Amino acid sequence: MTQIELPKYSAKDFATDQEVRWCPGCGDYAILAAVRKVLPELNHRKENYVFVSGIGCSSRFPYYMGTYGIHGIHGRAPAIATGVKAANPNLDVWLVTGDGDGLSIGGNHLMHTLRRNVNVKILLFNNRIYGLTKGQYSPTSITGHKTKSTPMGSIDHPLHPISFAIGVEATFVARCTDVNKGGLNILGDVLKAAANHRGSAFVEIYQDCNVFNHQAFFYATEKDTARETTVLLEHGKPLIFGNNRDKGIRLNSTRLEVVSLDKVKEDDLLFHDETDPALAFLLSRMHHTQGLPEPVGVFYRINKPTYEDMLSEQVEKSIASRGEGDLEKLLHTGDTWTVGE
Amino acid sequence: MNKPATEAVHHTGTETLESAVIRFCGDSGDGMQLTGTQFTTTSAIFGNDVATFPDFPAEIRAPAGTLPGVSGFQVNFAATDIYTPGDKVDVLVAMNPAGLKTNIADLRGGGILIVNEDAFNTNNLKKAGYSRNPLDDGSLKDYKLYRIPISRLCEESLADTGMGAKAIGRAKNMYTLGIVYWLFDRSLEPTIRHLTDLFAKKKNQPELAELNIKALKAGYYMGETAEMFQNRYVVPKAKLTPGKYRQISGNEATALGLIAGARLAKKTLTYAGYPITPASDILHFLSAHKNYHVKTLQMEDEIAAVCAAIGASYTGDIAVTGTSGPGMALKGEGIGLAVMTELPLVIVDVQRGGPSTGLPTKTEQADLLQAVYGRNSECPCVVLAAKSPGDCFDAAVEAVRLATKYMTPVILLTDGYIANGAEPWLLPKVSALKPIEIKHPTQFNAHSDEAEGEGPNTYWPYLRNENLARPWAIPGTPNLEHRVGGLEKAENTGNVSYDPLNHQRMVDLRLAKVNKVAQDIPPTEIQGNKSGDVLLIGWGGTYGSIHAATERLLNHGHKVGTVHLRYINPLPPDLGDIIKRFRTIIVPELNKGQLIRVIRDRFLVNAQGINKVQGKPFLIAELVAEVENFLSKK
What we know:
The structure holds two protein chains of two kinds. By secondary structure, chain A is of the alpha/beta class. Chain A folds into two domains: 11-228 and 275-314, Rossmann fold; 238-271, no CATH class. Chain A contains eleven helices and twelve strands. Chain A has helices at residues 28-38, 77-87, 99-105, 107-116, 161-167, 187-196, 218-221, 226-229, 277-284, 307-322, 327-331; strands spanning 49-53, 68-71, 92-98, 120-126, 172-177, 201-206, 230-233, 240-241, 247-252, 255-260, 294-301, 336-339. In chain A, strand 5 (172-177), helix 6 and strand 6 form a beta-alpha-beta unit. Chain B is α/β, with parallel strands linked by helices. Chain B has four domains: 14-234, Pyruvate-ferredoxin Oxidoreductase, domain 3, CATH 3.40.920; 246-432, 3-Layer(aba) Sandwich (Rossmann fold), CATH 3.40.50.970; 439-508, no CATH class; 527-632, 3-Layer(aba) Sandwich (Rossmann fold), CATH 3.40.50.920. The longest helix of chain B is centred in the middle third of the chain and has 20 residues, at 206-225. The chains are: A alpha/beta, B alpha/beta. Strand 2 of chain A pairs parallel with strand 17 of chain B, so a sheet runs across the interface.
């Protein structure tokens, strides 16, 4: 095959003529801009991208991408994406979902897509609220959250998306925020890392719903607090955070604790290892409300064969060992007999 | 064994029969399904027409010896064309008291009853609810009872093999089959071949092949030497259409048809399913034929299965999902998405008794309304129904053809009866199967005013052709990037649209497109009279019973005509004219009246129903009686 030179794309090539209809000030805009900016840098053909989504604010995403796309039904995007990948493993399939779509109605599909390691990039916009249905609590809403459907406060215990992803055998798990005024704007880098991972990549994005759950993640995105309440994960490096990078995370027995770098040497801090699922899970339980910064970056990254590769391999193996199926032969399989004139 | 073909010929105790119905029954662990299918294959290879009815419990191993644990297999084999497994049983083989108790009512008076005497012990009698041994109390005096100590004889004949008691015990079904083979003068060869293939080749247990073959032969010789039976019976070859045949079940034929459809379209077949009785065999069969460019996805649930199929369809594969009634209910929203996105999709529904979990292993035709109407809003699909095991092949090919030609979901209804039942199938000539033409666009198809220049400069995913089908551009095609989805689409451009008049047009268009399929429906065949007193309208798996009942009604001198519908939605365009030519319209269905509602609604005709919901097919006699009852009221 002759290598055809790839056109040089810009963010504009990934836009559509459709008016974007998210509320002004919604965190989704920043994510859309970041995705449009990152794709041209990946050197993949535009016609090979397929954006798949379910239902919810985030799920309108495909309509705003100048690529192939399916706006599916509530919660089922992972299954649709699995079908796309199964049919054509060469496509770059991205899946956009939210905390309701992905973790409530679609939790089952998300679980199985991750465990199968279907090579799709899954962006879960977590705003801890149902936006499109006008403000009911979601599976990630904090207990006690007062909404229209929970006037006395939510009695549900929230789900931790990262813990979920690690628990269901995802091979790439990361977190970032929609915007970041504290200088930790890693969204583009995380998207690129997800794109370059061969397998299911799960990215939780803290996203601000400025209408129904405004400022839910301000602690993690604002100038003064971002570096105090989040910690950047870097493979092989110690966990250091704080506006003055003066604090670190240390493992004390099976618990994580914040230590001051005045008193503890860097070498005694916890060093991040992307290949350790137990560590990844431990990190996924860190909450700023409990005095621990919430990790952003890549929690976990390992290599496993992808679903669609193994699926295609079985077809190829079957053809190699039994020959390309011949319809005539197939119909005549088994005991046959001839009735004469 | 009714209706001898000629005067019964008695020489050296051989009687010639036109047809015979045998039912093997016993515990679900007794191997009755294997015994039945072997007798069927042997008879088919011999040249009989055959029809079968396997009947087994939903439980894999219900408690041994109990009534719910009984598994049965009925085969009708004949020297003439037959259409059903038979109303009444001529020969009942009962391996235990529970089998006898649940099946004896179907044995005709004077019929042959073969029992494994050894199984009629106190414990088994009690489990079956017999207070006295029916073999001794005279209750079976209307039948020709043969009490054979099958367990003991089988054990004795295999004693020198050195095999364990368990393996020997399990071979008694082959011993029994040997007896029946002798009784009906059948060759042992096909079964010997099968046992060798099954045990020696596939399972690498040649000693088990040898054991079972020995049991089979021992049973046969027992029949020959014991001088127990007064007669042997011969059912001569049937005069079937010349050609090459094989035995086929409906699920196999459906799977073969799907593969054939995809091959005819030169496409990969992607089948996404979730295990469900009685549809799982389609998934199994396809999974074993990946070298035909078949990808099978066992998804996490029924919803995921239909959605994965939609994803594969968008990407350009022949996409199919298969299920049964409860799964259909779950797939409803997904099918709606396929209707809205106008993607080709085949949904196979192997119907079973319901509602809810219902009767998983028993047949019913009660999903018709679900198929036609069972989705939110105005959501038309093409609905087809297969009429017999072999017909599932043609129906599946047709489903693939229509789905891709009209860019629409097609629901194919089969049922547990034809899915598991088998019949001789005249193999189609592959060269005679019409290729399925699919063109994925690679060029712009429309002119957008916003762009400069003349000629096509954009791709409109909802621009329609003469069949009202939209184009099927697939991901990977440069410049034709487009989005589909569940929100209402603007005519032509496919952009999201909430415009009231556009919605009206799109709803109308989707309906008009499905109705267009009527142009592909061949003229409706009428069995019997082309006009007259009664028109029977059937659909799906009841074909055999209705066809045979019609023959009988015609023989009785009634002015009856019968049509059997393959196309449920849309209905055949000539059906209205046919209906007008008959005084009474009768719709027999294995439900409480579903097609009849569609017929009444469409043609404003006072149709009458014959309805049965017992998890069993119609008997010919009951249909004849019901129709004659209608006729007598006139």
